[in-house]
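Q: Joint fold for the lines below.
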Amino acid sequence: MTETEVFMQQVIYGLSNGMIIALVALGYTMVYGIVELINFAHGDVFTLGGFLTLTIVGALGAAAIIDPANLGDSSHWLLLFALVIGAGIFCGGLNVAIDRVVYKPLRRAPKLTQLVAAIGVSFILVNLALFWGGAPMEVFGGGNAAAASKDFPELLEGRNLLGEDSNVVLRLEDVSIFIITIPLMIALTVFVKATRLGRGMRATAQNPVAAKLMGIDTDRVIAATFMIGGFLGGAASVMWSLYNNTISFQMGFRAGMDAFTAAVLGGIGSMPGAMVGGVLIGLIRAMSDQYIETRWTNVVVFGVLILILIFRPSGLLGLKQREKV
Amino acid sequence: MKLASARFALFSLGQLLVLGGLALLPVVDLVFPSLQFAAPSRTVIVFAIMALGLNIVVGWTGLLNLGIAAFTALGAYAFGILTCEIYPFQVGFWWGVLLAGAFGAFAGWLLGAPTLRLRGDYLAIVTLGFGEIVQDALKNLEAVTKGTQGINPLPAPTLPGLQFSSETHVRWFYLYLAILAVVVFLCRNLEFSRLGRQWFAVREDELAARCMAIEPDKAKLKAFAAGAALAAVSGALGASLLSSTGEPGNYDFQVSILALCIVIVGGIGSITGVLIGSIVMVGLNVILLPLLTQTLQRNGIGSTGNVLTSPDNYKYLLFGLALVLMMRYRPDGIIQTRKATRK
Amino acid sequence: MKIKLIRSAFVFTALLAPLVGVGGALAESTIKIVSSLPRTGSANAQTTSMVNGIKMAIADVGGKIGDATIVYEDWDDASPQRGNWDPAVEAANADKAISDELVLAYIGTYNSGASKISMPKLNAAGLVMVSPANTAPSLTKQGFGEQNEPAVYRPSGKISYFRVVPTDDVQGAVAADYAKDIGSKKVFVLNDREVYGKGVAAVFEKRAKDIGLEVVGTDGIDTKASNYKSIVTKIKQSGADLVYFGGTTQTNAGQLAKDIVSGGLKAKFMVPDGCYEQAFIEAAGSRALEGRAFITFGGEDPKKLQGKGKEFYESYKKTYGGEPEGYAVYGYEAAKVVLSAMERLSKAGTPLTRESVRAEVAKTKDFVGALGTWSFDENGDTTNRTMSVNGVKDGEFEELKVVK
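A: Joint structure:
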C-alpha cells in the first residue's frame, strides 16, 4: 500500500466511525441543551437498540439474511431502513419512558442528583442487556453465554466497491453509514429550524421559564427531545452493529464516552457542534492509530480535546456563555 | 449559634457516630465470626478518603470532577515507586504516603492551572479525559511504571513494635480508621476556615465572590489540589493494602464514578454524608453483595448456566436500582446539608 | 434527622440478621473449599463451566473427606462497576479465606493479575492456592518478570501456589513454532496491555525472532475500542502475513478477527488460550475464523480427552447438559488434586490442617487425572506440557496439532 492509499483508507474509516459517534453525540447534546442533564444512560439505550436489532434479524430467519447468495439484494436495503426506524422508535420510546419515570421527578433536584440517577439507570440497562444476551435464540448463541459478545450477521454485501484489486477498501457498510446518517442529520436540522415543535425546543433551550410563559408546552418539548435523541441513538446502534458486526452488553460504554466527548468538543448543546465533534474524534482516532501508535490513541484524543478546550473554552461551535448578573 | 459551638469540637456528632460505629465493626466480627466485616472495611476507609477529597472539589467548590481516579492512580504509583524494593528510593510507608499526597497535590495543580476557568461540564470532560490519559500513560510508560505488571510488593504500615499483616487486619483496620479520623478532622477544619468559606462563595455565585475580593481561580485551584492530594493519599493507602499498585486499568472511569456516587448518595458537601456514602456504596460491593450471594448459595441457589437464575447476574441491576431509588427518595443524599442547597 | 439516621442503621442491621443466622454454626467436622473467580461480567460463561467442574470433583468424593463434610463456596472476585475482576474484592476474598479457619483450600484465580494480589497474602497464611487458569510465567518462575518475582509472592518461603495449566512460556513458543510451520515469514504482534496478554505476546515475539521470523511491528490495543479497522490498515501496510494477538475474548479478540477480514487483510490470525472458548467463536463469527485463525491451548479438546478425561467429559455433559468450555476440566482437575491430597492425609490418619494440606498437595506426583498423568514441579507448576493448536471448523474448534 502506498502512503496515499493508507491515508485515504484511514480517512474512510475515520469518517465512518466518526459519523456513528456524531449520531450518538446528537442525543447527548439535544438532551443537555434542553434539561442540562448529562444523560449517562444514553450509551446503554444505544446498547439495547443493538440487541433489539439482532433480535429482529434473528427472528426474521437466519437463512434469508445470512445466506451470501441473497446479499446485495435491494430487499436488504429495505430491511436496513426498517431496522433503523424500528430501533429508533424503540430507543426513543425507551428514552422517553426513562425520562418519565426517573428524570422527570428529579427535574428540580440538584444537577448532580440527576447525574447519579442517570448513572443508576445506566447500570440497570447494562443488566437488562446482559439478560437479553441470554435469550434462547440462535443469534444469541442459544443463550448459553449471556455475557459474551454476539456476532452480528452481514446484512450488506461485503465486496470492495473500488474493485477486488484495490488496496483501499470501501464497502457498502461504509457507504451505508453516509446514506443513513446524512439525511437524518439534515432532517433533524430542518425539523429544529422550521417546525413549531423545533422552535419550541430552541426556545426551551434558551430559557425554559420564559418558554413556558410564552405558552410552550415544555413537558411536550422535553419528551420530544428525549424521543428524537433516543431515535438517533437507536439509528446509530443499527449502523454500529452493521459496521462492527458485533454487539455486546457493554458496547454502550465506549460509544457513550466517545459521543459525550464529541458533544463537549463541539460545544455541548450545539447540534452542528456534536456532528463536527463526532467526525473529528473519528478522524483523530484513525490517524493516531496509523501514524502514532494505537496504544497512545486515547491519550492523543483526550490531549487534543484538552488543548482545544483551553483555547476555546466553550468548544468548537459552542456559544460563549455570558455571565448572568 | 450552633455553628460557633461546633467549631471547637474535634468532630461533629454525626462524624463521631459514624467513626465510632466503624470502630465497633471488629467487635461485631467477634460476636458473629461468619461476617468478617473488619478486613473488607479497610477498603471502605480507603474509598472514604478518596471521596472526601472529591467532596472538596464537587461538594464544596461546585466543580464537577469525573477523573478523581487519575489522582488515586498517581498516588498509588508514586507510593509504589517510592517504597518498592525494586526502585532505589525505599522511603518507607509513612514518607511514601505523605509524598504521594504531595505529588497528588502537584498533579492537581498542574491539571487545574490551565483548565479551571472552564465552566461546568467542560471541566468535567477535561477531568474525564485526564483520567484516561493517566491510565494509558501508566500502562505505556513501562520503563518507569512496569506497565501492566503493577508494582509489588509494597510495604504495610509500620509503627514501632507493631506488625501489620493479613492476620493482624484488625490492628490494620484501626490504624486506617485513625488516619481517616485525621482526614475528617482536617476536612472539618478546612470547612470552617477562611478558605472553606471562599469555596462555598465560589460555588454559590462566582461573580458575587469576585465582588467580595475573593479570587475564584485561586480558590478553585486550591480545592483541586487539596482534593487531588486526598485522592492520592487514598491511592497510597489502597496500594499498601493490596501490597501492589495493581494494573493501571484498576483506576478507570468506573472508580471515578463510584467516588462520585459516594459523594452524591451520602449527601453532597457533608463530611458525615460522604462517610456514610462510602459505607453504603463500597460496603455494597465488598461486603453486602458477596454476603448475599453466599447466603443464596448456602440455601441452594447457586450459579447455573441460565443467566436469569444466577444471583451474580443481578449485581448491576441491584447497584443501579439502589442509585435510582436513593436519588428518587433522597435527592439531596442521605445527609442533607442546608448549606449545600443549590439554585 | 440524626434520629432518622440511627433508625436506618437499625433497619440495616435487622436486614443483615437473617443473613448472619444462615451463616451461623457449621458442623464440627467441616472442611471449606472456596473458589475466587470473576462471576460478574463477560468471563462468566468460562467461570461457570469451571465452577461446574469443581462441583463435579466434590461430588466424585461424595462431598466428604473421611468424616468431614466438604462445604464449597463459589466466590466472585469481580464487582458490578468493573464488570471484571476487582483488586479490592480479590483482596477481600483472600482476607476472608484466611480469617475463616475452616477454609483449607483456595481455588483461583482466573486472571493472573488477580493472583498477584492474593498470592502473597495466602502464602503468608500458609493456605494452599490452586489456580485452574493462571498462565503468566512470572508468578512462579524467575526471569519472566521483575527481579523480585516470584520470591515476592512467597513471603513464607514455602510454595503454596500451584497451577494445573501449562504456562505461557510454553504456549508462546509453541505458537511461534507453529506460525513458522504454516509458512509465515512476517508477523505483527499485538497485545491487550494486560498481564496475561502482554506476557504471552512477549514470549511469542521473542521466540519468533529466535526462529527467524521477522517481527514487522508491535502494538497494544485499546480493548474497549469499537473496532480495529485502522490498526488493521497499518498491519496491511507492514506486509505481515500473520497477526498474533496476546489477549482474550474479553479483551476483544473477536472484534479484531472480524476487522482483519473486513479490512481486506489476508494474514492469518493467531491467539492464545484466553480465546479457547465457545464465546470467542460466537463473538468473531466462524466466517472470520475458518481457515485463518489458530488458537493455542494448554491441553486438548475436551472431546478428545482420554481415560479419566473422557469420563469427565461424558459426566459433565450428563450433569449439566451442555458442552464444557475448555477450562472446565481445569476447574475439575484443580479441585481434584486438592481433594486427593486431603484423602491421602485422611487415610494416613494425619489431621487436616492448612499446612498438612499444602505440603501434601506439593507432593503430588504422577497424579492420574483428567488431563493425563502429571506432577507438580518444584515451582508448583504442572509437569503437563501438552499444548494443542486449534483451528475453527463449522463453528467449532478443531484440533490441528498436539505438542507434548
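Q: Anything notable?
A: The mean pLDDT of chain A is 89. The first helix of chain A runs from residue 3 to 35.
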